[in-house]
Design brief:
The chain is of the alpha+beta class. The chain has three domains: 20-427, no CATH class; 446-573, no CATH class; 603-740, Galactose-binding domain-like (Jelly Rolls), CATH 2.60.120.260. Helix content is 47%, strand content 14%. The protein has helices spanning 17-46, 58-69, 92-100, 106-131, 134-146, 159-178, 184-204, 214-234, 236-256, 263-268, 272-279, 282-306, 311-331, 344-362, 369-372, 383-400, 402-444, 476-486, 579-590, 675-680, and strands at residues 458-462, 493-497, 502-506, 512-517, 521-525, 544-547, 552-556, 607-610, 623-624, 630-633, 638-644, 648-655, 663-672, 682-685, 688-690, 693-694, 699-704, 712-719, 731-740. The protein has a seven-stranded mixed beta sheet with strand order 6-5-4-3-2-1-7, with helices on one face. Strands 8, 10, 11, 13, 16, 17 and 19 form a seven-stranded antiparallel beta sheet that branches. A hairpin with a 3-residue loop joins strand 4 and strand 5 (521-525). The relative contact order is 0.10.
């Protein structure tokens, strides 16, 4: 506990050996108490899925750079990632994992698990020091890992952010520990180590800088303003060291920023004050509400609606509680501190500090409207503050009713674990779809690599209509993943979604071009010009024309099984691929989730599609003619939708009809631009038109005749006019539902 230190004297007393042994045992049991619950939570989360998760987005681009340039550990102004030079350590965890094993994602998993354990352990230590309760510390340790506000903790695109947060917390913990050390040399060295770790966090992810306030908030929570100020003056040397650690990153930014065109500058724009004026209110309406309670609302609904069976969730939650109880018995004989459950001033200060840290952790993302529209990585740095707020509430609750508060803790643990398990499942399912595409490509690519992967154009004819979404190999993701698979740089790839002929290339308003085949050529035509309110007419660059004799065409998406949507496994790797990496792909495709079944993996004769059920956990759209999902973000409910951006738009889905039943199609367009578009809207399923009936507020309904739906892959097409004077768009679709006729 951080307390006013006694005056030092020149006289020292020898410490009996028995006391030394007790102190060592107490230290060991304390370390177990801080580390064990966090490690057990990580085990619970990973056990059903193993190491099936792979790269998803930016990870593939990074791996492509490693293939092209070799492994590099720093992103300075001369590196292949010069735009990220303000984060020189951002690539460091990726490089470490790749260096340890370049043919799998095993070490990515290990590094992510270690980061989560560090995060949980440090929060446990800090909260125990504040409250005097190992129980509160261990609960906080679990909560900071399973906290449901953020939706990117368990994907590798955020591994550097997780490590930055863990380093910031570890650095803060070491620094606060230094304040309790009497030998000045030891205190200064420990403070310097803490400052160095915190500085490393800033060099890895710049949002860490604002977390420099953590020690001050912890000291204030424990001692208040007056006593906290006294402690600061007594240990001014250590505080100066801490400030120097933070300022070292500020100095680096001041030196480097003028030398580069940074990623941060590109997203912040030119008028920061205007941006903050517009986005400022979302610090509270989105950042605080989601952090404090909104995430738990989603977690509870997700846990109730997404699981087919609850055995693993209930058993693992019960075992976690037993681990906490058993660990409490281990440390209770050595714990001489009295829990401060009824210390209302402490709880009030702790709650206020938590609110401040929530706002500080979310504030950096106010500079980017795009980041405010998502819940990926934007809440990771707000989570420690949210846990502090909940610790204050739980600490107060234990002083009122231990039974009711323990029930509340149990609900939080179960719903939080449910959220994280479903999140992991969501990303593993995307990984499996990606691996199926890579395997499909490798199976149908002829393997004659000379002059093809190194420059000869490749046109992929995607009959599965899956390479059309950020989660499904857009741009650098496809180049990077194929570079990784073949072990040599891959570029100059074009994708055509067939049979509709949509070109993956999009313009400034996300409209796609066309792929036109002639007997001798492929012509890739950019989208036609459109305009919109306050936007001049777009330009149409000259079409790309490729002679068939000068390109390689690879057809994918034609040979999938209805049950798994995967290619049959071939034991012999195709020519040209790196065998170990191809085998890793096959392992992911054959992976079966253990102990848990989720409802979204079951194909039935009831199909409900939305562009995303949970905020910022979008489902990759299998189809063409749609913009990517956007979200109407509310306090607790979030609605996904997507613009119909082409005259012919389609969705592909798996279905399992029963007998020759009649089915009903229902859906909703939340906005149709004009009556002409509404009147022109026509829907067909597997080529069979349905009679569309419009209801109120954009709802529509149609009867699907017997025999139209088939067992396996089905296609629903939406044909309508578009408005070239309104960005070439037509309408906003929220979703569809196909069910049995009553």
């Amino acid at each position: 506990m951080i307390t006013k230190l006694p005056m030092e004297t020149n006289q020292t007393r020898p410490i009996p050996a028995s006391q030394t042994a007790v102190a060592r045992h107490s230290l060991a049991s304390g370390m177990i108490a801080h580390v064990l619950p966090a490690a057990f939570v990580a085990l619970i989360i990973w056990l059903p899925f193993g190491f099936a998760l792979t790269g998803l987005l930016e990870e593939w681009g990074v791996l492509g750079l490693f293939v092209k340039n070799g492994v590099f550990f720093l992103t300075d102004s001369s590196s292949p990632l010069a735009a990220h030079a303000l984060r020189p350590l951002t690539i460091f965890p990726h490089a470490i994992a790749y260096s340890l094993d370049s043919n799998s994602f095993n070490y990515w998993h290990i590094l992510l698990m270690v980061a989560l354990v560090i995060k949980g352990s440090t929060v446990s230590y800090l909260m125990r020091k504040l409250t005097g309760s190992f129980k509160i510390g261990m609960i906080a340790s679990v909560l900071v890992i399973i906290y449901p506000a953020d939706t990117m903790q368990l994907s590798f695109r955020g591994i550097h952010i997780n490590w930055a947060l863990s380093l910031a917390l570890l650095g803060s913990t070491l620094f606060l520990h230094a304040l309790s050390l009497k030998p000045k040399a030891r205190a200064y060295l420990t403070a310097a180590a803490g400052a160095a770790l915190f500085s490393s966090a800033c060099f890895m992810y710049e949002a860490s800088l604002l977390l420099a306030c953590i020690p001050a908030l912890i000291i204030y929570s424990q001692a208040g303003i007056k006593d906290g100020w006294m402690q600061l003056k007594q240990r001014i040397g250590e505080h100066i060291i801490w400030i120097i650690g933070a300022l070292s990153y500020v100095a680096y930014v001041a030196h480097t920023a003028p030398l580069i065109k940074s990623y941060q500058g590109s997203i912040a724009g030119n008028n920061l004050l205007a941006t903050l004026e517009v986005n400022g209110p979302k610090l509270f309406s989105v950042g605080f509400v989601r952090s404090a309670i909104g995430g738990w609302f989603d977690a509870a609904r997700m846990t109730m609606s997404e699981f087919q069976n609850y055995g693993y969730l209930i058993i693992s939650s019960a075992l976690l509680m037993l681990v906490i109880v058993a660990t409490l018995k281990l440390v209770s004989p050595q714990n001489n501190e009295r829990p401060r459950f009824s210390d209302l001033p402490l709880n009030a200060r702790l709650g206020l500090s938590g609110i401040i840290l929530i706002l500080v952790g979310y504030a950096p993302f106010l500079l980017s409207g795009a980041h405010l529209a998502i819940s990926q990585r934007t809440f990771l740095f707000a989570t420690p503050g949210a846990v502090m707020l909940w610790v204050a509430l739980l600490n107060t609750g234990f002083s009122i009713s231990r039974t009711l508060t323990n029930i509340c803790v149990s609900i939080l643990l179960v719903s939080g674990l449910g959220f994280q398990l479903y999140q992991f499942h969501h990303y593993v399912e995307i990984s499996k779809k990606q691996m199926a595409i890579l395997k499909d490509f490798a199976t149908h690519f002829d393997g004659k690599l000379d002059g093809k992967l190194d420059g000869k154009p490749i046109i992929i004819l995607d009959y599965g209509n899956q390479l059309n979404h950020s989660w499904m190999f857009i741009a650098d993701g496809l180049n990077g993943s194929l570079s990784y698979l073949y072990g040599k740089p891959v570029s100059n790839i074009q994708v055509c979604h067939m049979p509709g002929g949509e070109w993956q290339q999009s313009d400034s308003v996300q409209r796609k071009g066309r792929c036109i085949e002639s007997p001798d050529n492929w012509t890739l035509q950019y989208p036609s010009p459109v305009s919109g309110p306050d936007m001049p007419e777009t330009s149409q660059p000259e079409s790309l024309v490729f002679a068939k004799s000068d390109i390689v065409t690879v057809t994918i998406g034609k040979e999938k099984t209805a049950a798994t949507d995967q290619m049959p496994y071939a034991s012999t790797p195709p020519p040209g691929v790196i065998t170990e990496r191809y085998s890793a792909i096959a392992d992911v495709l054959q992976h079966k989730t253990r102990f848990i079944k989720f409802k979204d993996t079951k194909v039935t004769d009831d199909y409900k599609w939305t562009f995303g059920r949970w905020w910022s956990m979008e489902l990759p759209t299998q189809g063409s003619g749609w913009r990517e999902a956007s979200w109407d973000v509310g306090y607790f409910h979030h609605q996904s939708s997507a613009w119909k951006s082409e005259k012919q738009s389609s969705l592909l889905f798996n279905f399992r009809p029963r007998d020759d039943r009649t089915y009903i199609l229902e859906g909703r367009f939340s906005l149709v631009i004009n009556n002409a578009i509404m009147n022109s809207m026509a829907i067909s399923i597997n080529g069979s038109p349905v009679v569309l009936q419009w209801g109120e507020q954009g709802n529509f309904k149609a009867t699907i005749n017997k025999g139209v739906l088939k067992d396996g892959s089905n296609t629903i097409e939406f044909n309508s006019q578009t408005d070239d004077n309104y960005f070439g768009l037509a309408a906003i679709l929220e979703g569809i539902h196909i069910s049995r006729q009553p």
